[in-house]
Structures are given as structure tokens and as C-alpha cells.
Specification:
By secondary structure, the chain is an alpha/beta fold. It has a domain at about 35-50 and about 90-250: Rossmann fold. It has 9 helices and 10 strands. The protein has helices at about 50-55, 80-85, 105-115, 120-130, 150-160, 180-195, 205-210, 230-240, 240-250; strands at about 10-20, 20-30, 35-40, 65-70, 70, 90, 165-170, 200, 215-220, 225-230. A 6-stranded mixed beta sheet has the order 6-7-8-3-9-10, with helices on both faces. Strand 7 (about 165-170), helix 6 (about 180-195) and strand 8 form a beta-alpha-beta unit. It is globular. It starts with 9 loop residues before the first strand and ends in a 12-residue tail after the last helix.
Length: about 260
């Protein structure tokens, strides 16, 4: 179990996200530790996916910093940022596979673009990555020929092509039936425990949260920031904030606010 005795692999320091006059969240700070599965959760519109996109460098902060492996994602030179980004993998909500390419070609694309490996070496790595996500033998299939759960797993194989130290997931269970979602949770935990990969997961799916999270941070739209962080099992029963316990116990809060 990762602990805060380790140095963080990611530091989010007083981060503010703003689009025009609309502030999504402000002065958000937290750390992610090596080998940890951190889940970012909260209600609709609280900024979960926006926060993730800041963390991977797709959005620039209005204020504050994201430090990944010691590199400031907002201020470093392009070449340094490219090196840092090669050390992360991202599974987007849709899987984001190229429809005209086979699964093997999709998974092999990062290796083609960013390494000097031979075609034979790339093919071997692709086979290993597909096997790791239980898609051995499906390399020649097109995305349209497989199920939604298989597309997510193929997207995960591609995200892992360059052996990233950190994996980011944006709503990985979205659109999946309960069985496929549970299978993906098992796979996420297996990769984390087997490879020690640090993971940041955006989701609002309670079953997934309780299944995979070592720790959570909870964003709130009205607070424009973090209202809770810790073990979700502890927060479910012992948080002093009714917004937190309502979320974890699936109770309509009707805008309840913490006392005091």
C-alpha cells in the first residue's frame, strides 16, 4: 500500500481552472504517490475531467502548478515536456481507437512514433500488451468488430505501450454493462499490483470507487474545490460533511451544506 512517506510522483499545487469568466475550481492542492490508485470523484460539473486534463498537460492552469516527476507541466521546454508525457498513458472515456486501424496497429502506434524499435520488436510488444489486457488473438480485429468493454481494454493496451509510470483514466466504466465494468476494475487492480503502475482515475461509479481506490479526492461544484480526501470506506460512514456521506450512500442531498 503506497504511503505519504514516499516522495509524490505528482504534485498539484494551488491549481485554478478557468474558462473565460467561469472558474471551474480554484486553489486545488494534493499529491499522488508511487504505486497509488487515486480516484477523483464528485457530482456532475464539478471539474473532474478538467482536473485530469490539466494533470496531463492538455489544459494550461489559470494559476498554480502541476508537477509530474519533478517537471512543471506548465513552464518547461517542449522537449522536456515531451519526455515527461512519454512517461504517462491515458485511457480516454471513449477508448479513442482509430477505427480504420486494427487493434494491433492502434497499440503499436506509440511505438512506431516514439521509439527506434524494429517492426518485429514492435509486433512482439504489441502481442504482450494485448495479452496483458486479455485480448490475445484479437490483434487483427477492427474496433467496430469488438464489444465496448474490449475497446476499453484495447485502449488500455495502447496507453501502456511505452511502459508508462503513470496511467490516467477518464470515466473508464462509462457505457459498460456491470459485468464488463467489473472486469475492467479487476484488470486495473491487477496491473497496479503486478506492475506497480501509479494510477489516477476519474469516475463517479461507486462500485468501481470502492473496488479500486486506495484514496480519493472529492470535488464539489459549489465549493469549487476539494471537500474531502481519504479512504472512501472511511468517508462513507465518518465524513462530517453531509455532501460526502450523501454521495457515498447515494442519498439525494438537495443542496445540504456542512454545519459550521
Amino acid at each position: 500500500m503506497p504511503t505519504s512517506l514516499q516522495s509524490p510522483i505528482i504534485e498539484v499545487d494551488n491549481l485554478t481552472a478557468r474558462f473565460g469568466e467561469n472558474t471551474i475550481f480554484q486553489e486545488v492542492s494534493f499529491q499522488v504517490y508511487p504505486g497509488e490508485i487515486l480516484v477523483i470523484l464528485g457530482g456532475s460539473g464539478c471539474g473532474k475531467s478538467t482536473l485530469l486534463k490539466h494533470m496531463i498537460g492538455l489544459y494550461q492552469p489559470a494559476a498554480g502548478r502541476v508537477i509530474l516527476n519533478g517537471i512543471d507541466m506548465g513552464t518547461e521546454e517542449a522537449q522536456e515536456l515531451q519526455q515527461v508525457k512519454m512517461g504517462i498513458g491515458v485511457l480516454f472515456q471513449s477508448g479513442a481507437l482509430f477505427g480504420s486501424m486494427t487493434l494491433a496497429q492502434n497499440v503499436g502506434l506509440p511505438l512506431q512514433e516514439y521509439t527506434d524499435l524494429s517492426q518485429e520488436e514492435i509486433e512482439e510488444i504489441v502481442k504482450m500488451k494485448l495479452a496483458l489486457v486479455n485480448l490475445a488473438g484479437y490483434g487483427n480485429h477492427l474496433p467496430e468488430e469488438i464489444s465496448g468493454g474490449m475497446k476499453k481494454r484495447a485502449g488500455l493496451a495502447r496507453a501502456m505501450a511505452l511502459d508508462p509510470a503513470v496511467l490516467f483514466f477518464d470515466e473508464p466504466s462509462a457505457g459498460l454493462d456491470p459485468i464488463s465494468a467489473a472486469e475492467l476494475d479487476i484488470l486495473i487492480k491487477s496491473i497496479n499490483s503486478g506492475l506497480g503502475t501509479t494510477m489516477v482515475v476519474v469516475t463517479h461509479e461507486l462500485e468501481s470507487i470502492f473496488s479500486i481506490a486506495h484514496r480519493v479526492i472529492m470535488l464539489d461544484k459549489s465549493a469549487k474545490g476539494i471537500i474531502a480526501q481519504g479512504d472512501p470506506r472511511e468517508l462513507k460512514d465518518h465524513s462530517p460533511d453531509p455532501r460526502v456521506t450523501d454521495f457515498f450512500n447515494r442519498k439525494p442531498g438537495l443542496g445540504r451544506q456542512p454545519k459550521g
